[in-house]
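The material for today's practical consists of a large collection of protein records. There is nothing in a record beyond a sequence line and a structure line. As an example, a complete record with its sequence and its structure tokens follows:
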Amino acid sequence: MLTSIRLETPADHDQVRAINQAAFETPAEADIVDRMRRPCATDHLSLVAESDDRIVGHILFTPVTIGDATDSLDGMGLAPMAVHPDVQNQGLGSHLVRDGVTCQWPGVPDDVFLILWFEESRRGTVRGVGRYHAAFDEAM
């Protein structure tokens, strides 16, 4: 099923928005992706999954800090991650996802809140709230 995972390009924007809207109950996730494309938000990584020459999945990694005023750790948070409903539950999301921690927003399940740490050796040594890019606050 999966052909490739690659960087998102401007030509993908409409398809990525459609996949995020189809995968979620509200447009919040699609709006977050659009906000992260603003010229001032250059510190993210957006990937698409293709199959049969069409985009079937999308994942967005954005800067996240966990900790408090005395000690913090920087990483990349995963959110949103969307798979087209036609191909959900076939393992595609597993190709796009790795690790999880606690989210700053109430009601977000731990199993869908994910961060990739830049300093793996410090993982587990810093405790606190994970904080995403301000564009997420605008959509939440």
Notes: The CA atoms of residues 41 and 69 lie 24 Å apart. The first helix runs from residue 13 to 23. Residues 4-139 form a domain with the Aminopeptidase fold (CATH 3.40.630.30).
